[in-house]
Design goal:
The protein is α/β, with parallel strands linked by helices. The chain has helices spanning 19-33, 46-49, 60-63, 96-105, 117-130, 154-175, 190-198, 213-225, 261-273, 293-311, 331-336, 346-353; strands spanning 6-11, 37-41, 55-58, 85-86, 92-93, 110-115, 134-138, 178-183, 203-205, 231-236, 248-250, 256-258, 277-281, 317-322, 325-330. It folds into 2 domains: 6-152 and 291-322, Rossmann fold (3-Layer(aba) Sandwich); 156-287 and 343-353, Rossmann fold, CATH 3.40.50.460. The chain is built from 12 helices and 15 strands. The strands form 4 sheets. The chain has a 7-stranded mixed β-sheet, sandwiched between helices. A 4-stranded parallel β-sheet has the order 9-10-8-13, with helices on both faces. The structure holds 6-O-phosphono-beta-D-fructofuranose.
Length: 360
């Protein structure tokens, strides 16, 4: 056993199912195996910016019941880049040195950050600047982080979107309607293609493959000719209008968020096909709830592996899932490769092979 350590753990970016399961795994490995101290940092890097830093000492008994609990017990945020932090007077300030100071004030030997590509990039930059010993764990329902086949939260989101399609199927058939399900995923179509295949969608629209309304309407007519008077369409939120414009809405702090492509398509499909259309925007339901068994498993494996990296003093790495096992890669490599759906990959070929319309 190595020297006694005090490590910090934080969750950053949008929440998802499985975050608490990672926290549990980290504490069980760090305290249970290595007899280290673990401090949970509240509200992502904001907890390190606060004075005194906002932390909760974590013990195995406390985190043991968290395996199935959604959200994050530490809180999180997907706003407030510390390098351009929005101040009350409307200015942006670089507050990175306060976070680095927070790490020192707590006497941390290492920091585990559970985040998506944006959060991992910020934490990597902070670690470089402040000499912090950082290890990353990938999470995001979008599954868009490079060099890992899995990110925590994705599988649960796919399960939820698939269940939504299963439910829409019956009501679509009963009313002979075209049902459009808009799902999240930011700039990647991973949720849409996976749930679309698993949930038996007739049309899957993803940002990686351009579509035309004509081809969607042709699919609707073809189904009608076979006596199938309904159609299930799943669309990723970042799919653009026919003229290539993103469909977004303004959220707080001036940030743009995707949303509305489902209604855009519903109006145009109704106009061009005469079909009755309805839209379901799944939204944050995809991030909530009990993590799937696969997400619990990934979270547990990532948590243990991240602590083991710290035991080896192997820093500035992110744990990843590759070829059926957990391996670590440099954080810089993972964040440099944004992962989108491969238009020539297995899932797209599968969808085409099943006769699913991809809009092209
Ligand atoms: O990155 C996760 C995600 O849920 C995206 O799929 C979505 O575009 C975005 O976050 C929504 O962000 P917010 O929670 O700020 O609405």
């Amino acid at each position: 056993m190595g020297a006694q350590k005090r490590i910090g753990i934080l969750t950053s970016g949008g929440d998802c199912a499985g975050l608490n399961a990672v926290i549990r795994a980290v504490v069980q490995r760090a305290v249970g195996t290595y007899d280290w101290e673990v401090l949970g940092i509240r509200q992502a890097t904001r907890g390190l910016m606060a004075r005194p830093p906002q932390v909760i000492p974590l013990e195995p008994e406390q985190v043991d019941p968290l395996l199935t609990v959604g959200g994050t017990m530490l809180g999180t945020t997907n706003k407030g880049d510390p390098f351009a932090y929005p101040m009350p007077d409307g200015t942006l300030r670089d507050r990175s040195s306060e976070i680095i100071e927070g790490y020192s004030l707590l006497g941390l030997d290492a920091l585990i950050g559970i985040g998506g590509d944006g959060s991992l990039a910020i934490l990597h930059r902070l670690a470089q600047q402040g000499g912090m010993n950082f290890v990353g764990i990938p999470k995001t329902i979008d599954n868009d982080i490079g060099m890992t086949e899995r990110a925590i939260g994705f599988d649960t989101a796919v399960n939820i979107a698939t269940e939504a399609l299963d439910r829409l199927h019956f009501t679509a058939a009963s009313h002979s309607r075209v049902m459009i399900l808009e799902v999240m995923g930011r700039d990647a179509g991973h949720i849409a293609i996976s749930a679309g295949i698993a949930g038996g969608a007739d049309v899957i629209l993803i940002p990686e493959i351009p579509y035309s309304l004509d081809s969607i309407c042709r699919k609707i007519y073809a189904r009608q000719e076979r006596g199938q008077n309904f159609c299930l369409i799943i669309v990723a939120e970042s799919v653009r209008t026919e003229t290539g414009l993103p469909v977004t809405k303004l959220e707080c702090e001036g940030q743009q968020r995707y949303g509305g492509i489902g209604q855009y398509l519903a109006d145009r499909i109704a106009a061009c096909s005469g079909a009755e259309t309805r839209v379901t925007v799944l939204g944050h339901v995809q991030r909530g709830g009990i993590p799937s068994p696969l997400d619990r498993l990934t979270a547990s494996a990532f948590g243990v592996a991240a602590v083991d990296l710290i035991a080896e003093e192997n820093y500035d790495r992110v744990v990843t899932w590759q070829n059926r096992q957990v391996v670590s890669v440099p954080v810089a490599d993972a964040i440099a490769r944004y992962s989108t759906v491969d238009p020539n990959g297995t899932l797209v070929k599968t969808a085409r092979g099943l006769g699913i319309c991809l809009g092209s």
